[in-house]
User: What shape does this take?
Amino acid sequence: MSFTAEWLALREPADRAARDAGLVARAALAAGPDPVILDLGSGTGSTLRVMEPHLPDHAAWRLVDNDADLLEQARSDAHGSVETRAMDLRDLDALPLEGVTLVTASALLDLMPADWIARLADRLAAARLPFYAALSYDGVMRWQPHLPGDASVTRAFNDHQRGDKGLGAALGPDSGPRSVEILRKAGFRVHHADSPWSLNGAEAPLHRALLEGIASAAAEAGNADAAEWGRNRIRIAEQSRCHVGHIDILALPPCAG
Ligand SMILES: C[S@@+](CC[C@H](N)C(=O)[O-])C[C@H]1O[C@@H](n2cnc3c(N)ncnc32)[C@H](O)[C@@H]1O
Assistant: This one.
């Protein structure tokens, strides 16, 4: 599954507004006085850009992703100490954890299966590393005005989100609560907060792109009315409000603050 730089750029302002500000600040603190941060599935570096103002200038970043083009863009946009590494996250033993003080991810856990999150949790617990994972989709989408099909398309989209995104059946909308449970079982103290997108007419370009994606995924998942629903929703995107639920998680190892 691939994500374009255009899509990531379109969603970044909404992601930034949605992230729980308290957890961003606590994650930055958990990185310690000499932060070395490993960002998993970094894309073009949105987590780096959000956390930068909360970190000292000498903070160092390692961005990992399996998309070399996104990493290239991340490198060219970044200033400060930023290394990039193209790798497939299925190989958790290959994560470059040496010297790392915080591990981050955003819009990633919902693509992953439970066993991957459990293996990651065990690896980070063994290394006593804090983990900040933002913006996991929680399965809730609502629109104003309501249209017939909103609920059935959401159900079909959620089924699609539980499909294989490369590493086995993804947790999709279940990723937030399941990750909290898995991280707690691995010994972390876990804090979490809702981080919904709240889109209105000003975000119509993002809303329209999102609707195209939802309609096509729901159609693939067998909803015969999804394409027409998508066309109708796109037609009124500028006059609509849209809520898309997410969860942010900060997991602290037993001895961290
Ligand atoms: C939804 S995007 C989020 C990107 C970025 N974290 C952000 O919030 O803008 C998911 C990212 O995970 C990366 N990714 C997905 N599966 C991966 C895998 N198996 N190995 C490495 N990267 C992966 C994708 O290339 C993409 O950049």
Summary: The chain has one domain: 5-252.
